[in-house]
From TrEMBL:
This is glutathione transferase. CDD domains: GST_C_Sigma_like, GST_N_Sigma_like. Residues 2-79 form the GST N-terminal domain. The lineage of its organism: Eukaryota, Metazoa, Ecdysozoa, Nematoda, Chromadorea. The keyword Transferase applies.
Length: 210
């Protein structure tokens, strides 16, 4: 049996979608949560000086989307054709572009207390316009291609889990009604969170800074 160990901070951040994939697949894994004071010592052990890092029988994989893509393949949560997988990759890159926006990062760092600032004001002034742009395009794709709120119709993929976790944080840590303008994204989140294994995990998940 393959041994999995996920190394990430005690945050949802870029590691939570990975945790949720394991829950959906009912595959056990070690959830190694690294405290802030442990990070400098652990950093030198990572392939590229960043986390998450997933160890697969000791082999270290890094970059969250690469890990999600790998697990999607292992767990049967991919597209059915090369074109579908290319669409999944394109949408995942779209979400990563969003998360790499400087204003988004500034808001996240403020929420978790890494830097000082007014998180609600940053959200209103900087993040809301970004959300309108990125979520608007994702919503457009779901309208044109999704039939059951998922990106590829009724076929759940790792991308759907990634997208649901990405967008839900804007309502949980930003403004509770912010996603009302994107009903297909709201339906996506509800669809993913209604999976029995996900629902059970969310009911017992510890509350963290982000």
């Amino acid at each position: 049996m393959v041994q999995y160990k996920l190394n990430y901070f005690d945050l949802r951040g870029r590691g939570e979608a990975i945790r949720i994939l394991f829950k959906i697949a009912k595959v056990p894994f070690e959830d190694n949560r690294i405290a802030a004071e442990q990070w400098p010592a652990y950093k030198d052990e990572t392939p590229f000086g960043q986390i998450p890092v997933l160890e697969v029988d000791g082999q270290k994989l890094t970059h969250s989307t690469a890990i999600l893509r790998y697990l999607g393949g292992q767990f049967g949560l991919t597209g059915k054709t090369p074109i579908e997988n290319a669409l999944i990759d394109a949408l995942a890159d779209h979400l990563q572009d969003f998360q790499n926006e400087p204003d988004y990062k500034q808001w996240v760092y403020t929420v978790i207390g890494r830097v000082e600032g007014d998180a609600p004001a940053l959200f209103k002034e900087k993040v809301r316009p970004l959300l309108a742009q990125y979520a608007g395009l994702y919503e457009k794709f779901l309208v044109e291609h999704g039939r059951q709120s998922l990106a590829l119709g009724d076929n759940l993929t790792w991308l759907d889990v990634f997208a649901a976790e990405t967008f839900t944080k804007f309502a949980e840590y930003g403004e509770s009604d912010i996603l009302e303008a994107f009903p297909h994204i709201e339906a996506l989140i509800q669809r993913v969170n209604s999976i029995p294994e996900v629902r059970a995990y969310l009911s017992e998940r510890p509350k963290v800074a982000f």
